[in-house]
Write a structure and sequence with these properties.
single chain, 375 residues, alpha/beta, 8-stranded parallel beta barrel, globular, binds ligand G3I
Length: 375
């Protein structure tokens, strides 16, 4: 506790906030909940799950300068940078690196003994515009692009060597189209499939101790899942230094069902393959996969009891299954911390408020939280 207070003071917060948080968090029903309502309790998700897996959250550098920092220290033992380590932010020009956001998250993790997942080294989205073009604006060759990828990965991975224990090396390289295997991104169009293995090799050369993950979404869909499996298994069989698969888990009140979740985990239960849930959130709206314009019905954005109940049940079921598969799952990371803001406030519908996390806008644990720790 003393350690926690010291850290709060370092980032400009006082212990009062913690007391306020604890008293607001008074539980209602379960035995496990009892402790959190007393000022003695410092228990958080990370403690309830200490014999299961690490509990992480995706953060912005800004959030660490707000009272969210106190919540993180109480509840989580792992962090991921939501955006700050992505190529477009870190490496906006060929000779320009912008480390401020990424460094501040790395420093916070280090000072507070939190694990840090690196996100990410290669993705179709949030890539800087200079990457694929030469000085005249013409598309670069495969050789040039692979050299740029190597320079980027070597620089970033070396900088955080010893601080970042695991990297999402390649993200979302699989196509969502049923009859297409790999996404036809600029990476693929210029380099073919080879860029994927190369990215892992470059990362491994830069930090042989870092765990290297392939990370993707819609893992619950059997067709997409088979493609993820094919890619990961193929890389492993070819001797590429890949250590695990990141299953993002951007889910909703209507998916996944238990059977789909179990099937997914069973499929990835491969010897020597680590599995992490890397971007968990459970939207209070039915799952939609594509962005769309707002409709009349989208103005109803209150978190009703009905929506919340469905979310509670989904969280409860997911964590029950995660616990059962604890031998293969080494980390569960939420994609953001409280419901104050998340990417789902703008997807699939721009400006439609969502409430996908375990903490509300005031940072209080939601009803789903108590179900997740009640076991
Ligand atoms: O920073 C700019 C700001 O300057 C500008 O005014 C504003 C206007 O829209 O945009 C801001 O950038 C936004 C950025 O998030 C930071 O908030 C981008 O528009 C927005 O597109 C970007 O969204 C991020 C998204 O990745 C991009 O693909 C989300 O925050 C981030 O949560 C999301 O994370 C991804 C994972 O990396 C990979 N898996 C899927 C997951 C959810 O999409």
């Amino acid at each position: 506790m003393a350690h926690c207070f010291k850290n709060l003071q370092m980032i400009g917060l006082t212990g009062c906030w913690v007391m306020l948080f604890l008293s607001c968090a008074a539980p209602k029903n379960s035995g496990a909940l009892h402790e959190a309502g007393t000022s003695k309790s410092t228990k958080g998700l990370k403690d309830y799950y200490k014999n299961y897996f690490a509990i992480g959250g995706a953060v912005s550098p800004m959030a660490l300068h707000t009272e969210e920092a106190g919540l993180i220290l109480q509840q989580f033992n792992s962090l991921t940078a939501e955006n700050a380590m992505k190529m477009g932010l870190v490496h906006p020009g060929e000779e320009v690196y912008n480390w401020s956001g990424a460094d501040s998250i790395a420093t916070f993790a280090k000072q507070n003994n939190l694990k840090l997942r690196g996100h990410n080294l290669c993705r179709h989205n949030q890539t800087p515009t200079w990457l694929f073009k030469d000085a005249t604006g013409k598309q670069v060759s495969k050789e040039v692009l692979l050299k740029r990828l190597k320079d980027h990965i070597t620089t970033v991975v070396s900088r955080y060597k010893g601080t970042i224990f695991a990297w999402d090396v390649v993200n979302e390289a699989i196509s969502d189209k049923k009859d297409e295997y790999l996404r036809h991104s600029e990476w693929f169009n210029i380099c073919g499939e080879e860029y994927i293995a190369k990215a892992f090799e470059y990362a491994h050369e830069a930090d042989p101790n870092a765990l290297l993950f392939y990370n993707d979404y819609n893992e619950i869909d059997p067709i997409k899942r088979d493609k993820i499996y094919k890619l990961v298994k193929g890389l492993k069989d070819a001797g590429v230094p890949i250590h695990g698969v990141g299953l993002q888990a951007h889910w909703a009140i209507n998916e996944p069902n238990k059977e789909a979740l179990v099937n997914m985990l069973e499929q990835f239960a491969l010897p020597g393959l680590k599995v992490q849930i890397t971007e968990l959130d459970i939207s209070v709206y039915p799952k939609e996969h594509n962005a769309r314009g707002a409709r009349q019905v989208d103005t109803d954005t209150l978190l009703t009891n009905e929506k919340e109940q469905l979310q509670i049940e989904k969280y409860k079921m997911c964590f029950k299954v995660f616990r059962k598969y604890r031998k293969m799952i080494s980390g569960v990371t939420f994609w953001n911390i409280p419901d104050r803001s998340s990417w789902l406030d703008n997807f699939p519908v721009r400006n439609r408020k969502d409430y996908p996390l375990l903490f509300d806008k005031k940072l209080n644990p939601k009803k789903a939280y108590w179900e997740v720790i009640n076991f």
